[in-house]
Amino acid sequence: MGKFSIVGLKLVLTVILAGTLFVQLIMIPMILIHDSSGNMNDRLIQSSFLSYLFLAGLIIETCVFCVWKLATRVKRGTVFDPASLGFVRPIILAFAVGSIGTFALAAIFATTTEIAPGIVLLVGGAGLLMVGISIIVLVLRQLLEQATMTEAQAAELRTELGGVI
Q1: pLDDT level of residue 32 (50, 70, 90 thresholds)
Q2: pLDDT category, 1, cuts 50, 70, 90?
Q3: d(CA 125, CA 137)
Q4: Residues 119/49, Cβ–Cβ less than 8 Å
Q5: Lowest-pLDDT range, 62-66, 142-146, 149-153?
Q6: Angle between helices 40-76 and 3-22 in degrees, nearest 10
Q7: What is the DSSP string of 26-60?
């Protein structure tokens, strides 16, 4: 990645983080303050959705932090270090937790007649998408692990070759 790519990525990550914090710190409390007291079923749906939004914010913030650290490692040329793997695992876990939360939200939506079945299906599909993303990141982590091992072997061979010459 070039310098401009990393700067562009960090700019996008900053905007995403700011938007997520805005939703968590401003929007969700505003909705709670201006809550119209409805029946118990409406409050269950609203509180479930707002809890899900807060969880989604935590997941996004975790991913932004880890991607930021990985981009910094790319810029420094240290991405093929075993320490980089420690920034990939939280992304996998965040998406796994997010998929569980999404499936739970779909289950809550399915218990009411006020939410259309198509919406429940869309939310369940989003949960399945998150499972897929988690698996893709897991595969990418394994590729990073292999590249890290290859980099270490190459450095060892360079050292041996330097000793021979």
Answers
A1: confident
A2: low
A3: 18
A4: no
A5: 149-153
A6: 160
A7: IIHHHHHHT-----HHHHHHHHHHHHHHHHHHHHH
